[in-house]
Amino acid sequence: MKLDETVALITGGASGLGAATARRIAAAGGRVLLIDLNDELGEALAAQLGPRAAYSHANVREPGEVEAAIRVAVERFGRLNVAVNCAGIGGAKRLLGKEGPVGLDWFTRIIDVNLVGTFNVIRLAAAAMATGPPPDAGGERGVIINTASIAAFDGQIGQAAYAASKGGIVAMTLPIARDLARHAIRVATIAPGIFDTPLLGRLPDEARDALSASVPFPARLGQPEEYAHLACHIIENGYLNGEVIRLDAALRMAPR
């Protein structure tokens, strides 16, 4: 699929990985609909990107809000043929703390946002792609890109919920790709390592330096633009399907 023919819905699109991906697609001539809960950042980025971008307030866990956002993309840009799932939350708690076992609601919330929210967007975006305009010159109707984490493979102490949510995204990548193959929709997942996103930006310099030093090569935090570069390659490479790609500079996380 050509980037200048792309109409992409990007969740978590107001900042970090999602914003970098939106910028790269728009710069290549594609169009983007940003989905986020931060209206100030989302509207500002859409305005910055110009007529090739729009913003829609939507919670990925709410079917009605995601459907409304998809309608905005189709009405504004004529179709939807790419979805990039970057929305998610983090958090770490030990299973057994000083006050006993961790609350079940904490585990459920992370699973609900990261895993169920991703699946919700996938199913609704795929429906719009499958019933939209005919396939492009390469025979494709759409591409779906999900964001997991290397925590899916190397989860650290306290990351049971986060690792489970990202591991679920990894596990469903292949079956969903197989399911959507008959609709000419490809599915792939990126599993980032430690990236310089707004979440890490709140850490003190000493903590950021320690994280950078733990990365084999290059020994630094990943840049959102590097995630965006890979996402755009997945869009353009028609033979990438059903795959999970680690983007981590050879990092394998220690227990803590």
If you had to describe this structure to a student in words, what would you say it looks like?
With 256 residues, this protein is α/β, with parallel strands linked by helices. Helices cover 45% and strands 17% of the residues. The strands form 2 sheets. A 7-stranded parallel β-sheet has the order 3-2-1-4-7-8-9, sandwiched between helices. A two-stranded antiparallel ribbon has the order 5-6. Helix 1 (16-27) crosses helix 9 (224-236), helix 3 packs parallel to helix 4 and helix 4 (104-130) runs parallel beside helix 6 (160-180). It is globular, with a radius of gyration of 18 Å.
CATH top level assignment:
Alpha Beta
Number of helices: 9
Spatial ordering of strands, largest sheet: 3-2-1-4-7-8-9
CATH topology: Rossmann fold
Question: Based on helices, strands and strand pairing, what is the structural class?
Answer: alpha/beta
What is the strand tally?
Answer: 9
Bulk shape: globular
Rg on CA atoms, Å? 18 Å
Q: Which homologous superfamily in CATH is the superfamily?
A: NAD(P)-binding Rossmann-like Domain
| CATH architecture call | 3-Layer(aba) Sandwich
Unreliable residue stretches = none
What helical percentage do the residues reach? Answer: 40-55%
Distance between the termini: 41 Å
